Amino acid sequence: MKVFVTGGAGYIGSVCVEELLNSGHQVTVFDNLSEGHRLAVDNRAVFVHASLSDKERLLEAVRDAGAEVIIHFAAHALVVESMANPGKYFRNNVAYGLNLLDAAVECGVKKFVFSSTCATYGVPEQVPMTEDLPLRPINPYGQSKLMFEQMLEWYRRIHGLDFVVFRYFNAAGASKQFGEHHRLETHLIPNVLRVALGLAPDCEIFGTDYPTPDGTCIRDYVHVVDLASAHILAMKPGKSGFYNLGNGDGYSVRQVIQTCAQVTGKELRTLEKPRRPGDPPRLVASAEKARLELNWQPAFSRLEDIVRSAWQWHQAHPHGYTS
Ligand code: UDP
Fold first, then answer.
1. Which end of the chain has the lower number of beta carbons within 10 A, N or C?
2. DSSP string covering 254-265, please?
3. pLDDT by residue (tens digit) across 139-192?
4. Contact predicate 73/89, CB 8 Å
Protein backbone atom coordinates (compact mmCIF):
# COMPACT_ATOMS: atom_id res chain seq x y z
CA MET A 1 0.00 0.00 0.00
CA LYS A 2 0.97 3.65 -0.28
CA VAL A 3 1.57 4.90 3.22
CA PHE A 4 2.12 8.50 4.36
CA VAL A 5 4.00 8.66 7.65
CA THR A 6 4.29 11.86 9.65
CA GLY A 7 7.09 11.84 12.18
CA GLY A 8 8.87 9.08 10.29
CA ALA A 9 12.22 10.57 11.33
CA GLY A 10 11.40 10.15 15.01
CA TYR A 11 12.03 7.21 17.28
CA ILE A 12 8.93 5.05 16.83
CA GLY A 13 8.23 6.41 13.35
CA SER A 14 11.67 5.46 12.01
CA VAL A 15 11.31 1.84 13.09
CA CYS A 16 7.77 1.64 11.76
CA VAL A 17 8.91 3.00 8.37
CA GLU A 18 11.64 0.36 8.25
CA GLU A 19 9.11 -2.41 8.99
CA LEU A 20 6.64 -1.04 6.43
CA LEU A 21 9.33 -1.05 3.75
CA ASN A 22 10.44 -4.54 4.76
CA SER A 23 6.81 -5.64 4.26
CA GLY A 24 6.75 -4.23 0.74
CA HIS A 25 4.80 -1.00 1.27
CA GLN A 26 5.61 2.31 -0.42
CA VAL A 27 6.38 4.98 2.14
CA THR A 28 6.49 8.78 2.15
CA VAL A 29 7.89 10.32 5.32
CA PHE A 30 6.76 13.84 6.25
CA ASP A 31 8.80 15.38 9.07
CA ASN A 32 10.01 18.84 10.06
CA LEU A 33 13.05 17.34 11.85
CA SER A 34 12.34 19.39 14.97
CA GLU A 35 12.55 16.21 17.03
CA GLY A 36 13.53 13.69 14.38
CA HIS A 37 16.75 13.07 12.48
CA ARG A 38 17.39 12.89 8.75
CA LEU A 39 19.60 9.83 9.26
CA ALA A 40 16.72 8.06 10.98
CA VAL A 41 14.76 8.01 7.72
CA ASP A 42 15.19 4.74 5.90
CA ASN A 43 16.74 5.59 2.53
CA ARG A 44 14.14 3.50 0.69
CA ALA A 45 11.42 6.03 1.69
CA VAL A 46 10.53 9.30 -0.05
CA PHE A 47 11.31 12.14 2.36
CA VAL A 48 9.46 15.46 2.59
CA HIS A 49 11.00 18.02 4.92
CA ALA A 50 8.08 20.21 5.97
CA SER A 51 5.82 21.07 8.84
CA LEU A 52 2.21 20.13 9.59
CA SER A 53 1.56 23.84 10.12
CA ASP A 54 2.08 24.40 6.38
CA LYS A 55 -1.37 23.40 5.18
CA GLU A 56 -0.73 23.72 1.42
CA ARG A 57 2.57 21.85 1.49
CA LEU A 58 0.98 19.11 3.56
CA LEU A 59 -1.98 18.70 1.23
CA GLU A 60 0.33 18.58 -1.78
CA ALA A 61 2.53 15.96 -0.08
CA VAL A 62 -0.41 13.70 0.83
CA ARG A 63 -1.71 14.00 -2.74
CA ASP A 64 1.71 13.37 -4.34
CA ALA A 65 2.17 10.31 -2.16
CA GLY A 66 -1.15 8.89 -3.41
CA ALA A 67 -1.70 8.01 0.24
CA GLU A 68 -4.09 5.16 0.99
CA VAL A 69 -3.12 5.07 4.66
CA ILE A 70 -1.80 7.82 6.93
CA ILE A 71 0.18 6.92 10.04
CA HIS A 72 0.49 9.97 12.27
CA PHE A 73 3.43 9.88 14.67
CA ALA A 74 4.51 13.53 14.51
CA ALA A 75 3.94 15.12 17.90
CA HIS A 76 5.59 16.59 20.94
CA ALA A 77 5.64 13.88 23.56
CA LEU A 78 7.27 14.99 26.81
CA VAL A 79 5.10 15.10 29.91
CA VAL A 80 7.39 17.47 31.81
CA GLU A 81 7.71 19.92 28.94
CA SER A 82 3.93 19.91 28.48
CA MET A 83 3.51 20.86 32.14
CA ALA A 84 5.72 23.93 31.54
CA ASN A 85 4.53 24.84 28.04
CA PRO A 86 1.00 23.54 27.36
CA GLY A 87 0.49 25.86 24.37
CA LYS A 88 3.24 24.07 22.45
CA TYR A 89 1.34 20.80 22.88
CA PHE A 90 -2.12 22.04 21.98
CA ARG A 91 -0.81 23.98 18.97
CA ASN A 92 1.28 21.22 17.48
CA ASN A 93 -0.54 18.06 18.54
CA VAL A 94 -4.08 19.36 18.13
CA ALA A 95 -4.28 22.43 15.88
CA TYR A 96 -1.64 21.41 13.31
CA GLY A 97 -2.87 17.82 13.47
CA LEU A 98 -6.21 19.07 12.21
CA ASN A 99 -4.50 20.08 8.95
CA LEU A 100 -3.61 16.44 8.48
CA LEU A 101 -7.17 15.24 9.11
CA ASP A 102 -8.46 17.71 6.53
CA ALA A 103 -5.84 16.59 4.01
CA ALA A 104 -6.81 12.95 4.66
CA VAL A 105 -10.45 13.68 3.88
CA GLU A 106 -9.64 15.82 0.86
CA CYS A 107 -7.38 13.14 -0.64
CA GLY A 108 -9.75 10.24 0.05
CA VAL A 109 -7.40 8.42 2.43
CA LYS A 110 -8.89 5.11 3.53
CA LYS A 111 -7.39 4.65 6.95
CA PHE A 112 -5.80 6.83 9.61
CA VAL A 113 -3.55 5.27 12.26
CA PHE A 114 -2.83 7.51 15.20
CA SER A 115 -0.09 7.34 17.86
CA SER A 116 -1.81 8.03 21.13
CA THR A 117 -0.69 7.30 24.65
CA CYS A 118 -1.59 5.75 27.97
CA ALA A 119 -1.28 9.32 29.31
CA THR A 120 -4.87 9.81 28.07
CA TYR A 121 -6.06 7.75 31.07
CA GLY A 122 -4.41 9.88 33.77
CA VAL A 123 -4.24 8.00 37.07
CA PRO A 124 -6.06 4.72 36.35
CA GLU A 125 -8.58 3.21 38.76
CA GLN A 126 -7.18 -0.24 38.06
CA VAL A 127 -4.28 -2.01 36.38
CA PRO A 128 -3.90 -3.72 33.97
CA MET A 129 -5.70 -0.94 32.12
CA THR A 130 -8.38 -1.72 29.57
CA GLU A 131 -9.52 0.68 26.87
CA ASP A 132 -12.86 1.35 28.55
CA LEU A 133 -11.37 3.04 31.64
CA PRO A 134 -12.21 6.73 32.12
CA LEU A 135 -10.01 9.13 30.17
CA ARG A 136 -8.85 11.82 32.59
CA PRO A 137 -5.39 13.08 31.59
CA ILE A 138 -3.29 14.75 34.28
CA ASN A 139 -0.93 16.58 31.93
CA PRO A 140 -1.35 18.66 28.74
CA TYR A 141 0.48 16.03 26.69
CA GLY A 142 -2.14 13.38 27.50
CA GLN A 143 -4.91 15.94 27.05
CA SER A 144 -3.64 16.94 23.60
CA LYS A 145 -3.62 13.30 22.48
CA LEU A 146 -7.12 12.74 23.84
CA MET A 147 -8.37 15.80 21.99
CA PHE A 148 -6.97 14.41 18.74
CA GLU A 149 -8.65 11.03 19.43
CA GLN A 150 -11.95 12.85 19.86
CA MET A 151 -11.50 14.79 16.63
CA LEU A 152 -10.81 11.52 14.83
CA GLU A 153 -14.05 10.04 16.11
CA TRP A 154 -15.99 13.00 14.67
CA TYR A 155 -14.15 12.73 11.35
CA ARG A 156 -15.11 9.08 11.22
CA ARG A 157 -18.77 9.79 11.93
CA ILE A 158 -19.05 12.76 9.58
CA HIS A 159 -16.51 12.03 6.83
CA GLY A 160 -16.28 8.23 7.11
CA LEU A 161 -12.53 8.29 7.84
CA ASP A 162 -11.71 4.91 9.41
CA PHE A 163 -9.08 5.00 12.13
CA VAL A 164 -7.07 2.93 14.53
CA VAL A 165 -5.85 4.70 17.65
CA PHE A 166 -2.96 3.09 19.49
CA ARG A 167 -2.41 4.05 23.10
CA TYR A 168 1.24 3.26 23.59
CA PHE A 169 2.64 2.41 26.96
CA ASN A 170 6.41 2.95 27.28
CA ALA A 171 8.17 2.46 23.96
CA ALA A 172 11.71 1.14 24.35
CA GLY A 173 14.38 -0.88 22.54
CA ALA A 174 15.69 -0.53 19.00
CA SER A 175 15.93 -2.28 15.67
CA LYS A 176 19.41 -3.02 14.37
CA GLN A 177 19.48 0.20 12.40
CA PHE A 178 17.20 2.65 14.20
CA GLY A 179 16.98 3.59 17.86
CA GLU A 180 16.08 6.23 20.41
CA HIS A 181 17.78 9.60 20.19
CA HIS A 182 15.99 12.63 21.57
CA ARG A 183 17.89 15.91 21.59
CA LEU A 184 16.64 16.43 25.10
CA GLU A 185 16.61 12.95 26.62
CA THR A 186 14.17 12.53 29.48
CA HIS A 187 13.29 8.84 29.11
CA LEU A 188 14.39 6.33 31.66
CA ILE A 189 16.08 3.58 29.63
CA PRO A 190 18.23 5.80 27.35
CA ASN A 191 19.23 7.90 30.36
CA VAL A 192 20.29 4.85 32.31
CA LEU A 193 22.21 3.52 29.30
CA ARG A 194 24.05 6.84 29.08
CA VAL A 195 25.35 6.11 32.56
CA ALA A 196 26.39 2.63 31.42
CA LEU A 197 28.27 4.23 28.51
CA GLY A 198 30.09 6.54 30.93
CA LEU A 199 28.38 9.64 29.48
CA ALA A 200 26.52 10.57 32.67
CA PRO A 201 27.46 10.02 36.31
CA ASP A 202 24.23 8.76 37.93
CA CYS A 203 20.87 7.21 37.17
CA GLU A 204 18.40 9.70 38.53
CA ILE A 205 15.29 8.27 40.19
CA PHE A 206 12.42 10.73 40.14
CA GLY A 207 10.37 10.01 43.23
CA THR A 208 10.83 7.25 45.79
CA ASP A 209 7.63 7.82 47.79
CA TYR A 210 5.02 6.53 45.35
CA PRO A 211 2.44 3.99 46.58
CA THR A 212 4.29 1.09 44.89
CA PRO A 213 6.29 -1.77 46.46
CA ASP A 214 9.68 -0.03 46.14
CA GLY A 215 8.35 3.54 46.10
CA THR A 216 9.25 4.22 42.44
CA CYS A 217 6.93 4.53 39.45
CA ILE A 218 5.83 1.45 37.56
CA ARG A 219 5.60 1.38 33.77
CA ASP A 220 4.91 -1.17 31.04
CA TYR A 221 7.79 -1.23 28.52
CA VAL A 222 7.01 -2.36 24.99
CA HIS A 223 9.49 -3.03 22.20
CA VAL A 224 9.47 -0.46 19.42
CA VAL A 225 9.55 -3.23 16.78
CA ASP A 226 6.40 -4.71 18.32
CA LEU A 227 4.75 -1.29 18.18
CA ALA A 228 5.70 -1.12 14.51
CA SER A 229 4.16 -4.52 13.78
CA ALA A 230 0.85 -3.38 15.30
CA HIS A 231 0.71 -0.49 12.82
CA ILE A 232 1.07 -2.83 9.91
CA LEU A 233 -1.81 -4.97 11.20
CA ALA A 234 -3.90 -1.81 11.68
CA MET A 235 -3.67 -0.81 8.03
CA LYS A 236 -6.03 -3.57 6.97
CA PRO A 237 -9.39 -2.15 5.91
CA GLY A 238 -12.16 -2.55 8.40
CA LYS A 239 -13.36 -1.27 11.65
CA SER A 240 -12.16 1.65 13.68
CA GLY A 241 -11.07 1.36 17.26
CA PHE A 242 -8.88 2.23 20.22
CA TYR A 243 -6.17 -0.20 21.31
CA ASN A 244 -3.63 -0.28 24.13
CA LEU A 245 -0.15 -1.49 23.20
CA GLY A 246 1.88 -2.83 26.10
CA ASN A 247 3.08 -6.14 27.49
CA GLY A 248 0.97 -6.26 30.63
CA ASP A 249 4.07 -6.38 32.87
CA GLY A 250 4.89 -3.51 35.19
CA TYR A 251 8.48 -2.66 36.13
CA SER A 252 9.50 -0.05 38.69
CA VAL A 253 12.23 2.50 37.99
CA ARG A 254 14.54 0.57 40.31
CA GLN A 255 13.80 -2.71 38.49
CA VAL A 256 14.58 -1.08 35.14
CA ILE A 257 17.91 0.20 36.44
CA GLN A 258 18.68 -3.26 37.80
CA THR A 259 17.90 -4.87 34.44
CA CYS A 260 20.11 -2.33 32.67
CA ALA A 261 22.96 -3.12 35.08
CA GLN A 262 22.52 -6.82 34.39
CA VAL A 263 22.39 -6.45 30.60
CA THR A 264 25.31 -4.01 30.35
CA GLY A 265 27.42 -5.67 33.04
CA LYS A 266 28.11 -2.21 34.51
CA GLU A 267 27.71 -0.96 38.01
CA LEU A 268 25.21 1.89 37.84
CA ARG A 269 25.16 4.58 40.52
CA THR A 270 21.74 5.95 41.44
CA LEU A 271 20.66 9.34 42.73
CA GLU A 272 17.27 9.81 44.37
CA LYS A 273 15.48 12.97 43.31
CA PRO A 274 12.03 14.47 43.98
CA ARG A 275 8.99 13.40 41.98
CA ARG A 276 8.63 14.72 38.44
CA PRO A 277 5.40 16.67 37.91
CA GLY A 278 2.69 14.89 35.90
CA ASP A 279 3.86 11.29 36.50
CA PRO A 280 1.15 8.76 37.48
CA PRO A 281 2.45 6.08 39.90
CA ARG A 282 1.53 2.98 37.92
CA LEU A 283 0.67 2.41 34.25
CA VAL A 284 0.30 -1.15 33.01
CA ALA A 285 -1.60 -2.18 29.90
CA SER A 286 -4.08 -4.82 29.11
CA ALA A 287 -3.48 -5.29 25.39
CA GLU A 288 -5.97 -8.16 25.10
CA LYS A 289 -8.08 -6.19 22.66
CA ALA A 290 -5.17 -5.68 20.23
CA ARG A 291 -4.23 -9.35 20.55
CA LEU A 292 -7.77 -10.55 19.91
CA GLU A 293 -9.00 -8.09 17.30
CA LEU A 294 -5.78 -7.27 15.42
CA ASN A 295 -4.00 -10.55 16.11
CA TRP A 296 -1.09 -8.57 17.55
CA GLN A 297 1.62 -10.83 18.93
CA PRO A 298 4.54 -9.02 20.53
CA ALA A 299 7.76 -10.86 19.79
CA PHE A 300 10.02 -9.18 22.39
CA SER A 301 8.04 -8.96 25.58
CA ARG A 302 10.85 -9.59 28.11
CA LEU A 303 12.30 -6.40 29.56
CA GLU A 304 15.77 -7.90 29.36
CA ASP A 305 15.45 -8.39 25.58
CA ILE A 306 14.07 -4.88 25.14
CA VAL A 307 16.97 -3.36 27.09
CA ARG A 308 19.51 -5.56 25.25
CA SER A 309 18.37 -4.26 21.86
CA ALA A 310 18.55 -0.67 23.13
CA TRP A 311 22.03 -1.31 24.56
CA GLN A 312 23.28 -2.70 21.23
CA TRP A 313 22.02 0.39 19.42
CA HIS A 314 23.42 2.84 21.97
CA GLN A 315 26.80 1.13 21.93
CA ALA A 316 26.88 1.48 18.14
CA HIS A 317 25.61 5.10 18.34
CA PRO A 318 26.84 6.49 21.67
CA HIS A 319 25.98 10.04 20.62
CA GLY A 320 22.87 9.08 18.66
CA TYR A 321 22.38 10.24 15.09
CA THR A 322 24.87 12.79 13.77
CA SER A 323 22.20 14.64 11.77
N1 UDP B 1 12.39 8.43 35.29
C2 UDP B 1 13.41 8.45 36.22
N3 UDP B 1 14.64 8.88 35.81
C4 UDP B 1 14.91 9.29 34.53
C5 UDP B 1 13.86 9.27 33.60
C6 UDP B 1 12.61 8.84 34.01
O7 UDP B 1 13.21 8.09 37.38
O8 UDP B 1 16.06 9.66 34.23
C9 UDP B 1 11.07 7.92 35.69
C10 UDP B 1 9.90 8.85 35.39
O11 UDP B 1 9.70 9.75 36.45
C12 UDP B 1 8.76 7.86 35.20
C13 UDP B 1 9.44 6.62 34.60
O14 UDP B 1 10.83 6.76 34.91
O15 UDP B 1 8.23 7.50 36.46
C16 UDP B 1 9.28 6.52 33.10
O17 UDP B 1 9.61 7.79 32.54
P18 UDP B 1 9.84 8.04 31.01
O19 UDP B 1 10.20 9.49 30.84
O20 UDP B 1 10.81 7.04 30.47
O21 UDP B 1 8.44 7.72 30.34
P22 UDP B 1 6.95 8.29 30.64
O23 UDP B 1 6.30 7.23 31.46
O24 UDP B 1 7.07 9.62 31.32
O25 UDP B 1 6.37 8.41 29.28
1. C
2. HHHHHHHHHHHT
3. 999 999 999 999 999 999 999 999 999 999 999 999 999 999 999 999 999 999
4. no
Q: How far is CA 149 from CA 11, 41, 163, 174, 201, in A?
A: 21, 26, 9, 27, 40
| Cβ atoms within 10 Å, residue 154 | 11
Distance 116 CA to ligand 1 centre (A): 18
Task: Kindly give the number of the ligand 1 atom that is closest to the alpha carbon of 79.
Answer: 24
Q: Residue 186 C-alpha to ligand 1 middle, in angstroms?
A: 7
Pocket residues: Cβ below 6 A from ligand 1: 79, 170, 186-188, 191, 204-206, 217, 219, 253, 276, 279
Expressed in angstroms and rounded, the spacing between residue 188 Cα and the centre of ligand 1 is 5
Active-site residue numbers?
Answer: 141
Domains of the chain plus CATH, in order, are 2-172+221-245 (3.40.50.720), 188-219+249-316 (3.90.25.10)
